[in-house]
């Protein structure tokens, strides 16, 4: 039995894969990041017909190299981590798994290529790898702002959908299939295109009545956008308040420093005791 | 005479339909919600030509089942409620009625199908059924914010319409019917499409002068969107602040102090009683 | 000499035209408003070819009736007002004049019809006529907010134009006339269409490099819209502050009322003197 | 040796070119501004085919006049400034150089015309020339607001890109090349067009599933726009408040008080000296 030996071997591998403090760990992270980017670029290039027919074999080999690397990485992550199950069913664990298997199941089923899009999610590792604590902090704030205004956002989305269904049905009745509004689902789709001010123009109202209703929908959509913006603005303004304190115009008798905290008893610059009365009398 | 017996029968039905605390009440609510959703899906599917020709009879039977259920539900609601008139002319009462009748009047008139779009409004019952007090609260806040900024929004809409009419007339003169600007109403419609940044592209300026004016309209529309957003943002930011109260222009007869709380009875500066009428008269 | 008599005649006419307190004044205002709306509807209908060929004579007669009424109104306004010059060169005076003359000069020049668009501006009188003081107040606030952030808005517009000129030139070089980017001015126009997120789609990049640059422009435009919104939001949030005061948690010894103004000396509810120390000690 | 003489000659030229206080300096600035505008107009007109074929020679001569003036100006700026290197490698120095050379290198290479777009950047001189301190102030504020919310904006852009890559891949799989989604890069481009609510409409989903996904993307994009707006709004609202200072998480060794000013040297509560290193180490 040589548990320490084995543990030490797994321990070192764990450090390389999960940490980025050693030179080896950094190298691994950089290679991983490059391979993730490469895997996305490869998937993109394969989809461009001109490029695929010309360089099909190179792309196919590249795909295999990445898949093999991802496979080894995935196995190594499972082996070295203390609680493999926790990793496998974690957010990153599932993404890692789905990023690895597409090539394997392409032998079994054709058309499993939609899994390739999951690879883009691996890009999120960039935050971890580069230890961008600051950016993670911002992302956390953003997520918290979104979560705390979840109820507002759901009410808003529900309102958008009800408007789209009603207006879509009316547009279908007014314009009809002869003007491109083929069916109510298509009409509802067009309403959302219009409400969100995207406006593709593949379908557009032709009758005066349809154009009138479209005008109402557009102005509605133009106004509705103010709602989520107002919500997030208010959330953000409030969440910022934790990093700021109110200061007053009281000045220190000793060094003349101003803009002290409202409840300051000592000068933040020279440590002199502040005269609380002097402020109140002013 | 057995009023208690009868009242008890109506009472139990009332509890099933209007409340959601008993198992039967919950079951009824879930079935109702499913049928509302189904009724909307049915209307949508009927409008898709391929599906309608294939499954016309099934859809037609489904439509009848839903209509009969809605009819019974509508009658039951009228019978069990204490003040039937109040229900019939309430918001939900009218929606329930309009959701029920389309199939009946389709025997009398063709083309009454536009009433089917009303059914989407029944979805609003989801809030009631699921007792989503929290979401109703959010919706109320949203509605209050919109109501309190009603004057601003009307001024804004009026400005948008005046701009659209003026710019539309100019575009019609500049571009003319040969470039798709068939008439002034069409031009005004195009202006709103552009101002709201929807931009379908079914009509687009071709002449340099028209493109110049279009540029001005677009930048105007791009900037104008800031106005409703700013309004709602400010409303929301304010409504969150429980540390502020609204003050009015009433002035104290004794010391002349102004900016009292709206509900103030005594001057905050000298303690003199304030004359509530003096404010109303101003 | 009968100046009082004459003055009284002009005085009464002045009251009818400029004021809205007498029944005659109200009637005049309502008729004026209806005629302004009618004049705009007439101009619009004339531009619709199908309607114009059918009802040309009725429309032409209607146009003459409105023009004659506007002429008399314009003359009456000049006669009855104390300082005719001040009226003639005022904002409303010029609009009234330009709304009246198009039919007259159509005898002299063809194509003077662009003046008809000025009539839409007469709609602004609606605020005056209906004495909608509240809405005028909102409009004034809006105008003040726009004026006080004039410098910011100009810097913003200048930035948008410089970006559009640079990106437009680059798009012209990349895409070229063969893909619809006919000339640099057209390219700049397309850039503004894209920056403002209108996106007509009459011109769209085809080459990969062009699509890449378009992506950058779109994201830029998507982000830039935050700037005017942020400006107006901040302006509005501040301008609202004048109607609110900060309140604290101090409670009245006599009636227990809370949320007094920070500088309140007496309770706003019962007039009891507040103990300033009790607040500071808390 | 006549250094003073020569210095005086260079000194006077320096004053004309770099300052705007003397009549000659003002004249120079106005001429420069006109020539910059003219150079941009010339580049634009050359690109319009109808105009170029007709007035090619005039435009070509104009181009040469401007290039020669710019050349002399560039040389004069280098001669008269004290530290020529600092100027040459400054922002304005590089722009001045790139604005001057296109015509010269057009003898060497064809297709160097993309440098002409740099000339638009010379327009930024307008701020310097017109001494629009106020506008420069606003621009600085805007830039500072953007810089201070840099981390947030990068996180936001990254999120947009990841969403676009994932949704783009899915759209390519769903719609396929036969519906205009030629390749994944094109699909990603379409996703950004949709997310930013530009919506050209050159490519639009046709299948029901594609339209469903498009709906999700649109609503996502419609909601995401709230994020940068909220960020900038909060930044602006905050930057207006000179009554607030940023605080950090450093805690006092003596009394444990937290939330000190970023530049505090002494604790505001007990007057103990703060250890600046303790904060940096955390």
TrEMBL record, chains A, B, C, D:
It is a multi-pass membrane protein. GO terms for molecular function: voltage-gated potassium channel activity. It is found in: Membrane. GO terms for cellular component: voltage-gated potassium channel complex. The keyword Transmembrane helix applies. Pfam families: Ion_trans. The chain crosses the membrane at residues 27-45, 57-76, 88-116, 153-174, 186-206, 212-232. This is Ion transporter. It comes from the Bacteria. GO terms for biological process: action potential. Coiled coil: none annotated. Residues 26-240 form the Ion transport domain. Keywords: Ion channel, Ion transport, Membrane, Potassium, Potassium channel, Potassium transport, Transmembrane, Transmembrane helix, Transport, Voltage-gated channel.
């Amino acid at each position: 039995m040589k548990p320490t030996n084995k543990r030490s071997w797994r321990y070192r591998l764990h450090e390389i894969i999960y940490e980025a403090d050693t030179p080896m760990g950094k190298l691994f992270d950089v290679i991983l990041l490059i391979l993730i980017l490469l895997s996305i670029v490869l998937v993109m290039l394969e989809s461009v017909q001109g490029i695929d027919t010309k360089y099909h074999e190179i792309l196919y080999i590249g795909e295999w190299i990445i898949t093999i690397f991802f496979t080894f990485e995935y196995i190594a992550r499972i082996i070295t981590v203390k609680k493999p199950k926790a990793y496998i069913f974690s957010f990153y664990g599932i993404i890692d798994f789905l990023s690895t298997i597409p090539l394997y199941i392409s032998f079994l089923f054709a058309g499993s290529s939609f899994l390739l899009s999951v690879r883009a999610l691996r890009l999120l590792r960039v935050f971890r790898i580069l230890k961008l604590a600051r950016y993670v902090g911002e992302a956390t704030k953003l997520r918290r702002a979104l979560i705390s205004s979840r109820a507002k956002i759901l009410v808003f989305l529900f309102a958008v959908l009800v408007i789209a269904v009603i207006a879509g049905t009316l547009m279908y009745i007014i314009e009809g299939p002869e003007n491109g509004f083929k069916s109510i689902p298509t009409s509802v789709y067009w309403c959302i295109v219009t409400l969100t001010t995207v406006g593709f123009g593949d379908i557009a109202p032709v009758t005066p009545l349809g154009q009138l209703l479209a005008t109402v929908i557009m102005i509605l959509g133009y106004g509705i956008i103010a709602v989520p913006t107002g919500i997030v603005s208010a959330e953000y303004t409030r969440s910022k308040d934790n990093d700021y304190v109110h200061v007053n115009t009281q000045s220190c008798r000793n060094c003349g420093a101003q803009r002290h905290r409202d409840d300051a008893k000592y000068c933040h610059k020279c440590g002199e005791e502040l005269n609380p009365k002097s402020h109140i009398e002013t």
